[in-house]
Amino acid sequence: MIILGLTGSIGMGKTTTARLFMDEGVPVHDADAAVHRLYAGEAAPLVEELFPGTVEHGVVNREKLAQRVVGNPEAMKKLETVIHPLVRADCERFLEEHRQKGTPVVVLDIPLLFETGGRERVNKVVVVSAPADVQKERVLARPGMTEEKLEAIRARQMPDEEKRQRADFVIETGYGIEPARQAVREILRQLRGA
């Protein structure tokens, strides 16, 4: 089974690209989606213990949590020590399920793949990228996003240029969905040796 790591900085088109892989029949483990599930389940009491008042009705309130950790490296580190092992365990269950099924290719959608040492867990890395002005426009269009929040997030992420250099494949997402779809198909063709 080939394990593809999909990554890219905020606003680069990673979620859309993950959907393009799914459209081609490739199972995707989405780390962000796993965090959402965990925040509504086993992670909630652990987060509440670290950051009292951030859980409501058994679910982590992401806005309240963000107010406590964004721009606070020490708090972010505490949160990551709880969340990363849970996400990794969720991912391992996904991989084991697909190994047993004999799935030829899977994608692990890992936002901070290089930053968290995720490179060792995958066979090849796909980086999604777009011009800086496109990235900024996409991110600032999100509800509740500000330039200050964007800069705090960027500060935690490896620069796009460095990610591109470390990648096995780069998908440019600034040109629309069809060129990105063709890039996904070409990567899969190469991996399958067709």
Task: Give the helix/strand layout.
Layout: E1 2-7, H1 14-23, E2 28-30, H2 31-39, H3 44-50, E3 55-56, E4 59-60, H4 62-69, H5 73-101, E5 105-109, E6 124-129, H6 132-140, H7 147-156, H8 160-166, E7 169-172, H9 177-191
Parallel strand pairs: 1-5, 1-6, 2-5, 6-7
Antiparallel strand pairs: 3-4
Helix pairs in contact: 1-9, 2-5
- Alpha plus pi helix count: 9
Q: How many runs of DSSP E, i.e. beta strands?
A: 7
CATH topology of the largest domain, anyone?
A: Rossmann fold
CATH top level class name of the largest domain:
Alpha Beta
Q: What is the quaternary state of this protein? A: single chain
Strand content: 5-15%
State the strand order across the main sheet.
Answer: 2-5-1-6-7
Largest sheet: 5 strands, parallel
Mean pLDDT: 92
**Proportion of helical residues:** 40-55%
N/C terminus separation:
16 Å
Which series of helices and strands comes N to C? EHEHHEEHHEEHHHEH
CATH architecture of the largest domain: 3-Layer(aba) Sandwich
Specify Rg, calculated over alpha carbons: 17 Å
